[in-house]
Specification:
The protein is built from 16 helices and 13 strands. The protein is an alpha/beta fold. The strands form 4 sheets. The protein has a 4-stranded mixed β-sheet, with helices on both faces. Strands 6-9-11-7 form a 4-stranded antiparallel β-sheet. The chain has a 3-stranded antiparallel β-sheet with strand order 10-8-12. Strand 4, helix 10 and strand 5 form a beta-alpha-beta unit. Helix 5 runs parallel beside helix 11, helix 5 crosses helix 12 and helix 12 packs across helix 13. The longest helix is centred in the middle third of the chain and has 17 residues. Bound molecules: uracil (URA) and calcium ion (CA). The site of calcium ion has 9 residues, from strand 6 and helix 11. The site of uracil has 6 residues, from helix 9. GO terms for molecular function: 1,4-alpha-oligoglucan phosphorylase activity; metal ion binding; thymidine phosphorylase activity.
Length: 434
């Protein structure tokens, strides 16, 4: 087989066979196919697309390019949840203990990564003592015992995707549905998920800005998962404004605790109940979505969800005392109110720009080397549709620097107030199961 023939084939809009897809991924992983040929191939895929079979086979070829995690020693159906990324998305912190409280095993492998705030691990490390450096057998023991544990990314998972994603990043080929869908799904499958629950964000703060694009990505991922024997579903949820109130690491841990107690922001709570219902249902712990939702509400009101969070923190060295006393979390030196400059209704809170403001305070990493300040961030007081009076607080800025004029300017510019009443955005647009 010659790569050049395969490039021409895809360029001309033809289907690649199973063997050809394997040849490409194996060759690119072992460096026998050079970047320049792979660049041409990704551009051909960008323009010509891939059908369902090709997408599933590309995904599995990437899964097989490296190690895969074997979670078979964990009892029950391992349902993984993945979000395509948003601003102040606190769902993972809430969903883990929430579904674990119902006996759904949560074996989470997580990373740090770049972004407006840290990843799940960074956020959890805001709890004093909490660590994810545990051995694999300890990880498995903890999930069997407590139904939840988090471990740092280890091993050589999907090396093909790592190389390919970096190449796409510099060749204008990130934005291709088959390439994005196979990239995300390969990582979930390699990490050992039996079933996958996807939260595809849509809106200004999301990777996919329009509902049509988000739906196409969601459907592509759901079809890949189901075609390779992993029950997969997707929710399309709003990311025009940040989710919940808190954007920042310790601040989001506190928000997760509030939500697990039943006192969380309405949108975050609702999204967690929606995603959680699907996870519980996929795990076979409820016969219907309604039954799953009732059970979730029950563990919130009877305190079991919060108790599961405490046990989880303690089992990985964290101080469970933060749950009853969130003041034990890292606190910023300055808490500054941002006051509304006019009367009206909040019409826009541009999610990605608010995220940038949080990152400028130090909540996230701009480069791999950046050090995160776990205490800092933003807590919204108002969301889209809320009425506001001049002088009222729009949000609080938690900062370790006193001088934050630049941050304030970004926030003012990206929180818009209109004279007319504005409806709150739709939170869950669609639930896609096939
Ligand atoms: N996230 C991924 O993991 N892969 C992509 O291709 C795009 C977003
Ligand atoms: Ca939040």
């Amino acid at each position: 087989m010659r790569m050049v023939d395969l490039i021409e084939k895809k360029r001309d809009g033809k289907e690649l066979t199973t063997e050809e897809i394997q040849f490409i991924i194996e060759g690119y992983t072992n460096n026998s196919i050079p970047d320049y040929q792979m660049s041409a191939m990704t551009m051909a895929i960008y323009f010509q697309g891939m059908n369902e079979r090709e997408r599933a086979e590309l995904t599995m070829a990437m899964v097989n390019s490296g190690d895969t995690i074997d979670l078979s020693a964990i009892d029950g159906v391992k349902v993984d949840k993945h979000s395509t990324g948003g601003v102040g998305d606190t769902t993972t912190l809430v969903l883990g203990p929430l579904v674990a409280a119902l006996g759904v095993p949560v074996a989470k492998m997580s990373g740090r990564g770049l972004g407006h705030t840290g990843g799940t691990i960074d956020k959890l490390e805001a709890v004093k003592g909490f660590h994810v450096e545990i051995e694999n057998d300890e990880f498995i023991r903890l999930v069997n015992e407590n139904k939840i544990a988090v471990i740092g990314q280890s091993g050589n998972l999907t090396p093909a995707d790592k190389k390919l994603y970096a190449l796409r990043d510099v060749t204008g080929t990130v934005n291709s549905i088959p390439l994005i869908a196979s990239s995300i799904m390969s990582k979930k499958i390699a990490a050992g998920a039996d079933a996958i629950c996807l939260d595809v964000k849509t809106g200004a703060g999301a990777f996919m800005k329009t509902l049509d694009d988000s739906r196409e990505l969601a459907k592509a991922m759901v079809s890949i998962g189901n075609n390779v024997g992993r029950k997969t579903m997707a929710v399309i949820s709003d990311m025009s404004q940040p989710l919940g109130f808190a954007i920042g690491n310790a601040l989001e841990v506190k928000e997760a605790i509030d939500t697990l107690r039943g006192d969380g922001p309405e949108d975050l709570t609702e999204l967690c109940l929606t995603l959680g219902s699907h996870m519980v249902y996929l795990a076979g712990q409820a016969a219907t979505l309604d039954e799953a939702r009732n059970k979730l509400n029950e563990v919130i009101s009877n305190g079991k969800a919060l108790e599961t969070f405490k046990v989880f923190l303690q089992s990985q060295g964290g101080d469970p005392g933060v749950v009853d006393d969130p003041a034990k979390l890292p606190q910023a030196k300055y808490i500054i109110e941002l006051e509304a400059t006019e009367d009206g209704y909040i019409s826009e809170i541009v999610a990605d720009e608010i995220g940038t403001a949080a990152m400028m305070l130090g909540a996230g990493r701009a480069t791999k080397e950046s050090i995160i300040d776990l205490a800092v961030g933003i807590v919204l007081k108002k969301k889209i549709g809320d009425q506001v009076k001049k002088g009222e607080s729009l949000l609080t800025i938690h900062s370790n620097r006193e001088q934050i004029e630049e941050v304030k300017q970004i926030l003012y510019k990206n929180i818009k107030i209109s004279k007319e009443k504005v409806p709150a955005p739709i939170l869950v647009h669609e639930e896609i199961t096939h």
